[in-house]
């Protein structure tokens, strides 16, 4: 069976691995320069900063079985067991940044980056997936793992009827600031993560304390309310407001370099009641964190569940 997956984020790559292990012929397309989607890691000089997901937790046995393999391969490590106080539950991080998890998953798979999929056509035998170079890629089945509004836009030609209720799923936005510092004399306490520390930020992460950055570097994520209120301002203005809001957390440290970051589809505000959606013919599925839970574990489990459904 030939399967095309749109999206090389966590859900798409978990599905691709599972289908490839079952000896299906799988190609993954992603519009990004690299794999990872919202598992995003950026280098600024000698600093390494996660600018999407910051850490993850594990609740299910199924996800734990994958995370244990990543631990053995040193792809992830335990960062801490709680930020403000210890609660006994491990918080994991990618050992080379979060995007390292998806780079690991992509090994040995046919993944094409810089490849925007812009439409999907039904054919007599399956689908044509059309990429932005105009090429039509034929396949038997398709899995879409982009945030739901982006997957909807691929359906615009009417290839598949998706449930109208799915249109109501919206995503919180996140405005972020990446800051490379000259020292560790900032005010982010051990173990290097602070959740909801003030009225602007939902998380501040110390990438050096997390173990991924050779130099001092903080990631600031504004909370959904602040991000929504400021999202449409000019990027320079957002940058300046974030720098002002970050000031109390910098202590005596000076910023050497900083960058703002906008996530339009950061985390789903509501989720679909099933871990994936599949059309009546069983040939087109949707997966991602809007299905099995609005975090990394949900994205992974959704990709795996959709892969199983496509092989039935
Ligand atoms: C700022 C931020 C902080 C977060 N913090 C945490 C956290 O601390 N812990 C946690 O567990 N989760 C966190 N999350 C959520 C977590 O990152 C996501 O749940 C997870 O990464 C989603 O994976 P996914 O595969 O479903 O989607 P994505 O990672 O979004 O992957 C979808 C992929 O589809 C690609 N794509 C879209 N449209 C097209 C197209 N037309 N053609 C080709 N490719 C396309 C995109 O480029 C993308 O790579 C955070 C997210 C953000 C943004």
TrEMBL record:
InterPro entries: Amino_oxidase, FAD/NAD-bd_sf. One of its GO terms (molecular function) is oxidoreductase activity. It holds the Pfam family NAD_binding_8. Residues 78-310 form the Amine oxidase domain. PANTHER family: FAD/NAD(P)-BINDING OXIDOREDUCTASE FAMILY PROTEIN, FAD_NAD(P)-BINDING OXIDOREDUCTASE FAMILY PROTEIN. This is Unannotated protein. The lineage of its organism: unclassified sequences, metagenomes, ecological metagenomes.
